[in-house]
Amino acid sequence: MVAKKRANFYGILLSLLMVISILALFNAKPQITGAAVTEIEKRNEGCIGGIPLDTCSNTKPLYCVDGQLRYNCYECGCNSGESCSDHGFCEILDKCADGSFYGECSTLIQGSFCDSGNIIKKCSLCGCGSGEVCEKDKCVKK
User: Fold this and answer.
1) Which of 58, 67, 113, 130 is deepest in the core (most CB within 10 A)?
2) Is the pTM of this model over 0.70?
3) What are φ and ψ of residue 33, in 5° steps?
């Protein structure tokens, strides 16, 4: 009989402790630790190298976001001879032998076009020099 009373007492005590623990969990308020505060402060300072938040680095196309440098040529642009890709990276533009970029008129040879590495006559697109006319995509003297 004494054993049953003792068992009931411990059962009630255990149940009461569980209820108190559950209530404590639901009523507890989370607190920010020192490590989290330090991380937030770092984000507010900028990026490595002293680059302020939301600004471009001197090294294109790196942009400072949330304390990290990320590629963003839409915001920072690219170096000369590079083009901005769909993903924010800079890609080197291909050139023809005369130095003109693929898909553009030649800067040295009047009436010529840089077509995938080949310089072709295309005065209908690029025009001719003074004293010349375009005939069958070739510049000829008047």
Assistant:
1) 113
2) no
3) -85, 170
